[in-house]
Specification:
The chain has 275 residues and is α/β, with parallel strands linked by helices. It has a single domain, classed as Rossmann fold (3-Layer(aba) Sandwich). It contains nine helices and nine strands. The strands form two sheets. The chain has a seven-stranded parallel beta sheet, with helices on both faces. The structure holds nicotinamide-adenine-dinucleotide (NAD). The site of nicotinamide-adenine-dinucleotide (NAD) has 26 residues, from helix 1 and helix 6. Nicotinamide-adenine-dinucleotide binds next to helix 1 and helix 6.
């Protein structure tokens, strides 16, 4: 018996491809391994079907759900699917997002359409998923929501403005959900991943970027989708029953320090202070 036995979970942005996993895919696999019945939801179909087949081949229960997070009726139908297939809903992992493309630049260069897409998918989509999920989770006597934010929602950057601001909104939404429905048994937390080596990241980032990110990460390695899955599985379990409204960095410590300070110490002894 896993620690999520009897629970029903929706994971958005959950799929499997060759060459590694996605964050949502790794999370769906782990939640299913812990006994949850999983609705794997995404706008792409074949990679989700692959994930569902893998969960079933490992003895778990899962169904695929096509959802476009820009469409309110589709989001409502996703929540209804969990209820019709598995009898209710206990867990929502809002992991899907509009990732930053080349058009997501600094404020002066920002195209309004790029901004609108990030706000529509990441902010409005996450809010609407919460809107329709929360009443169902309350019917079960409570449950947990985990939203995927990002370090980009906490600090500024020279580009990716729409992405970063959309993730800041997800952080705020997390606190509002925790505040408004806590007494009805809903816990809502957000995670801020660092660079996680998903299949997509491995295929797109250059060795130079990987090396640079590793330099500023405090652990000897970069993150994996499974690092996020482990924290989501903890946050939605009873082990985390007194944790809500928290924003948890899962980033190998990259946001725990100011790299310029560390480097100045390496270059030469500090010329200030008492020592
Ligand atoms: N990989 C990282 O290094 C990293 C770092 C920080 C935060 N994150 C966050 O983690 C989450 C997962 O990212 P990932 O790296 O696994 O990438 P990903 O591309 O696998 O995840 C994004 C998912 O959102 C889905 N999606 C996009 N538009 C959609 C829409 N309109 N309707 C439904 N689904 C839609 C995509 O199909 C995809 O499955 C995202 O929220 C991302 O912002 C990732």
């Amino acid at each position: 018996m896993g620690k999520l036995s009897g629970k029903v979970a929706i994971v958005t942005g959950a799929y499997l491809v060759d060459g590694g996993n996605s964050i949502g895919g790794a999370t769906a696999l782990l939640l299913a391994k812990e006994g949850a019945k999983v609705v794997a939801a995404d706008i792409v179909d074949e990679p989700v079907a692959r994930l569902v087949a893998k969960i079933k081949s490992e003895g778990g229960e899962a169904v695929a759900c096509h959802v476009d997070l820009r469409n309110e009726d589709a989001i409502k139908a996703m929540i209804e699917k969990a209820v019709s297939e598995f009898g209710g809903l206990d867990i929502l992992h809002n992991n899907a997002a509009a990732l930053p493309g080349p058009g997501d630049r600094d404020i002066v260069m920002m195209e309004a359409a790029t901004w609108d897409r990030a706000m529509e998918i990441t902010v409005r989509g996450t809010m609407l998923a919460c809107k329709y999920a929360i009443p169902e989770i309350i019917k079960r006597g409570g449950g947990a929501i985990v939203n995927t934010a990002s370090g980009a929602g906490v600090a500024g950057d020279m580009a990716r403005t729409a992405y970063g601001v959309s993730k800041a909104a997800v952080i705020s939404l997390t606190k509002y959900a925790a505040t408004q429905y806590g007494k009805q048994g809903i816990r809502c937390n957000a995670i801020c991943p660092g660079l996680m080596l998903t299949a997509t990241a491995k295929a797109t980032i250059t060795p130079e970027v990987e090396e640079m990110m590793l330099k500023y990460t405090l652990t000897p390695r970069l993150g994996t989708p499974e690092d996020i899955a482990n924290i989501v599985a903890f946050l939605v379990s009873d082990d985390a029953s007194f944790i809500t409204g928290e924003i948890i960095a899962v980033d190998g410590g990259i946001f725990a320090h100011v790299p310029s300070s560390s480097e100045s110490v390496l270059i030469g002894p500090a010329k200030h202070g008492n020592n």
